[in-house]
Amino acid sequence: MQQPGQTSTSILGNPVLRREDNALVQGQGGYVGNQKLDGALHCHFVRSTTAHGEILSIDVDEARSMPGVVAVYTAGNLNLDDRPCPMPFYPKEMARPFLAHGKVRFVGEPVAVVVAETVTQAVDAAETIWADVEPLTAVVGLDNALAGHTLLFDSLENNVAFANKVDDPIDFSNYDVVITQDVVNSRVAPVSIEPRVAAAKWEDGRMTCWASAQGAHDFRGAIAGTLGLEPEQVRVLIKDIGGGFGAKGMASEEEIMVAYLARELNRPVRWAETRTENLIGYVHGRAQDQKVTMAGTSDGRIQAFRLEVLQDSGAYPKWGAFLPEFTRQMACGVYDLDRVECEFKSLVTNTAPTCAYRGAGRPEATAAIERAVDLFAAKVGMDPAEVRRINFVAPDAFPFTTKTGTVYDSGEYERALDAALEAADYAGLRDEQQRRRDAGDVKQLGIGVATYVEITGFGGSEYGEVSLKADGTVLATTGSTPIGTGHVTTWAMIVADKLGLDFDEVEVFHGDTDVVPSGETTGGSRSVQIAGSAMADASDKLIDLARQTAADLLEAAPADIVFDKASAEFHVAGTPAVGRTWVQVAEAAADPLAGLSDFSQDGATFPFGTHIVVAEVDTETGKATIERIIAVDDSGVIMNPLLAAGQIHGGLAQGVAQALLEEFRYDEDGNPQTTNLADYTAISAMELPSYERSFTETPSSSNPLGAKGIGESGSIGSTAAVQSAIIDALAPQGILHLDMPLTPEKIWTALQAV
């Protein structure tokens, strides 16, 4: 605690170490798997091994007689209606059953669940269950889904879950230079370190759930709505999460069934999926087939851009089917163009459902337009960085309304580009590249440039409460859910800065719906700008409340009381030598003091940046090596540069992974080909160089902190930059486009074909 007369400097903007990490590295994390539940049963799901087929029968007799088995459920005795689609404009016929009935629609879809005294007993019994399924033609690939020769839902006329249409399409015959290209944004798996895990207990008419999810209150809503309970009958506890990335933004069918089973059997029930279950039976990301068409003049001015998107929604439309709308909103990228249009269709296929995955539609938009700009630059024979520069939205044009109707709050795109080019020594890299080309070097150099903008902080409010404790320290209660992103540290920094307290004098609480009245799902890079602003607002309100008590202590009118953050004291205006501390205010307050906030901001914010990637491609083997990654990102005012850098680091790794390695694959019959981490190649430190990273700061006026989102930025710019770099290395061989992932096999095959 500061002593009277002491001054403090602002903690915000400084690289403060995460306070969350000590418990985690000591094995004291509050993960669901660590939760002790006396007498808990364990459940295990039986999953379809057929992608598409009619269920003729499911034989569970042997399983019911196995040792330790308490219950076995199929759709026939599971008293749960099909789960409605998450969006009201999806066809209602595409509702998903909790356990498949009538048909199975993807490999990994649950058809039965076994509940037993131990995990081993549940797994052993599940292996005896036989589902007799008559195979149907599997719909794999978006062209097959669009053709509609086979329908996933017989009562519908097509496989379309969601679509838009452009009424007045651009006539590209009127432009001097036109490029067009089909682009695949490949299907990837989120691969959080902690797969799905859940536990539930029904007691005295109330449900308690322990969850690994991105939002406690949304999780509670899913449980209550499905089980016919009032929200106050459900308590959800979320403490530590081993990664979310958007996949854990919605309670899954299996997690809801854990709560259902706990009530049905009147005993605690728990479940943890295996990695293979997570890969085949959960959700995937991206999975867009795109067609880009760009037109302009021979001097590099881009005038028109059209993006056509086919989105793979998987077997049942979740968030993934809606993602092309985010892609449409951000289709213009950082460019001031005369005409832009985006037309899309989201289609169901016999594959795992797709969801919001880090960036959720915005990386797809960036990948599309940045690929098109590279192709356009090649067509007009100009440097790709220069083409970007001359088409940027000017800094004095903000707030700027794009041709798809999105209003950007602020941006200095050329500043970020120039900073990245200077850090990379762009001219020197181009010289080295030319030297290798002239020498016919086996290892060719590629330089990829991507300038991106994304949308963050859209929609919703966030709860914050800052209460003064008896000893003069404070408790900060947040409705946001940390997902490994440093919330506890950041909220403590914001509150400490506002109240003039030491960082350690702020306790942060989250993740209990019995204590926290409301909260939104953590996603869309919204946390600092909305939940952090709620913390700041609640702190200001606590100061206002404390001013009355301080006025009584100082025998003055509340309007004359000033709070001095530097000394953490209240004093009468003009007489700073006589003050009252937070301890004195706490001791004198007639009632506990707490500032409350439910903060929302006016409109979204739009972070941006430039990523440059330097790649070396061995033209004899096809192996691409990432030599350098230069990232300049702008997320408005930064609360903690250390945590912001960590977010960028993780995002860069995910972006590079998609560009180089990761792809979830199915064969033509809908059988998954990447069912474990030996087949699905997640990236490691071996494939990544040390990052060269810096920030610019363009404050947002949408919130009092001036902050924008940072959590997804790394994954948005890096993917396009890696793809650009590798294709740039291959350009002398006449290769102007390859789809991700750019594996050695794909690169080598392309080289043999030229």
Brief summary of the model shown:
Helix content is 28%, strand content 24%.
Describe the structure.
This protein has 754 residues and is an alpha+beta fold. Helices cover 28% and strands 24% of the residues. The strands form 7 sheets. Strands 3-5-1-12-9-10-11 form a 7-stranded mixed beta sheet, with helices on both faces. A 5-stranded mixed beta sheet has the order 7-15-14-13-8. Strands 18-26-27-28 form a 4-stranded mixed beta sheet, sandwiched between helices. A hairpin with a 5-residue loop joins strand 16 and strand 17. Helix 13 runs parallel beside helix 14. The N and C termini lie far apart (71 Å).
Give me some keywords for this one.
754 residues; alpha+beta; Aldehyde Oxidoreductase, domain 4; Aldehyde Oxidoreductase, domain 3; 3 domains; disordered N terminus; 5-stranded mixed beta sheet
Write the topology of this structure:
Blueprint: H1 21-25, E1 41-47, E2 53-59, H2 61-64, E3 69-74, E4 103-104, E5 110-116, H3 119-126, E6 130-135, H4 142-147, E7 160-163, E8 177-188, E9 197-203, E10 206-211, H5 216-227, E11 234-237, H6 253-265, E12 269-272, H7 275-281, E13 285-296, E14 302-314, H8 323-329, E15 339-348, H9 362-380, H10 384-391, E16 400-401, E17 407-408, H11 413-424, H12 426-439, E18 443-453, E19 462-468, E20 474-478, H13 487-499, E21 506-509, H14 527-554, E22 561-564, E23 569-572, E24 579-581, H15 582-588, E25 594-599, E26 608-618, E27 624-634, H16 641-660, E28 691-696, H17 713-730, H18 744-753
Parallel strand pairs: 1-12, 10-11, 14-15, 20-21, 27-28
Antiparallel strand pairs: 1-5, 2-4, 2-6, 3-5, 7-15, 8-13, 9-10, 9-12, 13-14, 16-17, 18-26, 19-20, 19-25, 22-23, 23-24, 26-27
Helix pairs in contact: 8-9, 9-17, 11-12, 13-14, 14-15, 16-17
